[in-house]
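Researcher: Please predict.
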Amino acid sequence: LMTLREERIPVGLASVSLNASAILQALDLKSYFDFCADAALISRSKPDPEIFLAACAGLGADPRQCIGIEDAQAGIDAINACGMFSVGIGTGLNGASLQLPSTEFLTWPCLSALWQHDK
């Protein structure tokens, strides 16, 4: 998150939790996110892409120019449905553009290299 902030890459959170913003605040992470889309903004939950589309809209970004990161199959399906580049974290996820075993491997250089190669 620090690298993304340094690189001035907009970051959004798409959470179906109603208290996502409060959790970011409690963890002192809110300053790393430019927009937080939560359950109050949507009527349909994952695997519907609505929450990710809301996050993209809040960032003013085209979903096809965004990377979505998820640890659940419903989230991967939702990310793919809105045309985003999907990153799956963990095992047992199908259809992710990139699969990583843990967030330890989730770095901007890794994502940037893959993004540039995929385009």
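Model: The beta strands are 12-14, 35-37, 67-70, 85-89, 98-100.
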